[in-house]
């Protein structure tokens, strides 16, 4: 399977230099990351919301090695919130954050990440929107869930992400499927060992459906993070069986992937939120998009051959 190879490349400085230097790379990256600055991204926000879509914004960047860089990540999100305030879009545009950006892996990282992310959550609430904590590799999850629980004390709309390929996630879903919770379910995009995660696609898909049923039958707000047509159809069936109205769950997909499906779901009355990333430190995010879906890798390789 190519996924683990690509994920390994995402941590290679040599591969970063080679791919970043390729003339075609920026053109292909733009498919998934449509801007480097807030100013770049504002027209995208206006265009997508004008089409009836909602967004979750991600300022890309995970290689944080100093507390000053973590504070810079915090400030980047606060600057984004200032722009969103001017747009007056409320809950149509929320934010997704990776706690690694806020210093989680540094010395004293749990407390540092909480201290840095808290003002972002507070500022988001002040303009009528929310923040979702992205899941990263399995070693970070206990810290992420603890920070999530702490933030929800004052801001109960703070969301979190769970990953279907991890063995622990079925138990996490049962705990999180409570009134007021917001939970995004994804398959998972990190290289995880067989001791903690399913390795085969069919096993991951089955786990995804089991976990999604738990969320749909619960009292929280499920967010279905998938581009898989079969899983999207199953999600609609589970929502119907659970008696959920169209505003009691939502679909989420990545910017640049299956754009026609985004519009189709929105036209049918579903809440459809587009995960939209921007920023200059795009490499890790981009490589995981390639690892997640073979079609993304084929698209990149065709571009390299035809344009390189």
TrEMBL record:
Annotated catalysed reactions: L-proline + a quinone = (S)-1-pyrroline-5-carboxylate + a quinol + H(+)
EC number(s) stated in the UniProt entry for this protein: 1.5.5.2
Requisite cofactors: FAD
Domain Proline dehydrogenase: 45-299
A Pfam short name: Pro_dh
Keywords per UniProt: FAD, Flavoprotein, Nucleotide-binding, Oxidoreductase, Proline metabolism
Pathway: Amino-acid degradation; L-proline degradation into L-glutamate; L-glutamate from L-proline: step 1/2
InterPro entries referenced in this protein's UniProt entry, alphabetically: FAD-linked_oxidoreductase-like, PRODH_bac_arc, Proline_DH_dom, Proline_oxidase
PANTHER family: PROLINE DEHYDROGENASE 1, MITOCHONDRIAL, PROLINE OXIDASE
Name of the featured protein: proline dehydrogenase
Organism: Streptomyces graminearus
């Amino acid at each position: 399977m190519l996924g683990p190879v690509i994920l390994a490349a995402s941590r290679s400085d040599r591969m970063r230099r080679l791919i970043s230097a390729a003339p075609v790379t920026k053109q292909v990256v733009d498919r998934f990351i449509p801007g480097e600055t807030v100013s770049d991204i504002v027209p995208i926000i206006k265009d997508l919301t004008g089409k009836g879509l909602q967004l979750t914004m991600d300022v890309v960047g995970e290689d944080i090695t100093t507390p000053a860089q973590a504070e810079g990540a915090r400030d980047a999100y606060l600057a984004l919130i200032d722009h969103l305030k001017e747009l007056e879009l409320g809950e149509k545009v929320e934010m997704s954050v990776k706690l690694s950006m806020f210093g989680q892996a540094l010395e004293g990282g749990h407390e540092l990440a909480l201290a840095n992310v808290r003002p972002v959550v507070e500022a988001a609430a002040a303009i009528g929107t929310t923040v979702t904590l992205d899941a990263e590799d399995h070693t970070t999850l206990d810290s992420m869930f603890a920070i999530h629980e702490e933030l929800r004390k004052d801001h109960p709309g703070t969301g979190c992400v769970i990953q279907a390929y991890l063995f622990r996630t079925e138990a996490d879903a049962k705990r999180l499927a409570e009134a007021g919770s917001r939970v995004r379910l994804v398959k998972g995009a990190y290289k995880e060992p067989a001791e903690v995660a399913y390795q085969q696609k069919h096993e991951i898909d089955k786990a995804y459906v089991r976990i999604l049923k738990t969320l749909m039958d619960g009292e929280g707000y499920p967010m279905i993070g998938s581009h898989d047509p079969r899983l999207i159809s199953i999600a609609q069936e589970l929502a119907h069986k659970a008696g959920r109205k169209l505003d009691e769950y939502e679909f989420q997909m990545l910017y640049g992937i299956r754009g026609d499906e985004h519009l189709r779901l929105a036209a049918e009355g579903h809440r459809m939120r587009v995960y939209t990333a921007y920023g200059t430190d795009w490499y890790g995010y981009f490589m995981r998009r390639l690892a997640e879906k073979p079609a993304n890798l084929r698209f990149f390789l065709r571009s390299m051959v035809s344009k390189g």
